[in-house]
Write a structure and sequence with these properties.
With about 210 residues, the protein is α+β, with helices and mostly antiparallel strands. The protein is about 60% helix and about 20% strand. It has a domain of about 110 residues: Beta-Lactamase (2-Layer Sandwich), CATH 3.30.450.40. The two termini are about 30 Å apart.
Amino acid sequence: MRLRVFLYLALFSAVTIALLWLFQTVFFDSFYQAIMFRKIEKTQDAICSAWGNSADESFSAAVFDMAGDTGFCISVYSIEDMKGKEEVRAHEHPLCLIHNLQSMDQLADFYNEALDAGGNAIFRFDEEKLTESEDGRTIVSVRVMKYDGGQLLTLVNTDIFPVESTVSTLRIQLAAVTLILLLLSAILAVLISRRLSRPVAAINEQAKLLATGD
């Protein structure tokens, strides 16, 4: 009985650990990136909403608050009669890509590609070379929104930091947790089997006494 209880507990522990390994190591980077992209999208939505509902000063304040809360670099341009005007430049960082554009041609490229993509485009850059790369960790989200009299061009820039060191730490922690759970499973198996076996043993003893007529 002890062995059976131990096997059940060990199986439960193994399934739990396997799920932790999958979510905390194998899929950790994918979850992290998905969360960051969702956060960028929500920030873009908030910027466009603030533009339509705020005066100039309150809009700038709202964008600065968003940049401070998220840690994103944000630039907002209004475009009227094919002329662009920078409305807000928030959370400037020394290495921020959108605040260090080499020329207005780069800004025009962002604008045109976003238009071609239906108003939204995501660009990924290698964080060292600052060249476009499918696996780049520097992200620029570009959105073009039409409003009465013109268009709004919003750029949100952030870095998705590598998580290899975090995953390595989690692997060590999960290995320790695995050993602890297996040890606890063995202890629990002994305790549970003892508690279950005592009544059974007592019943067997009573049955023997009844069989002998005592």
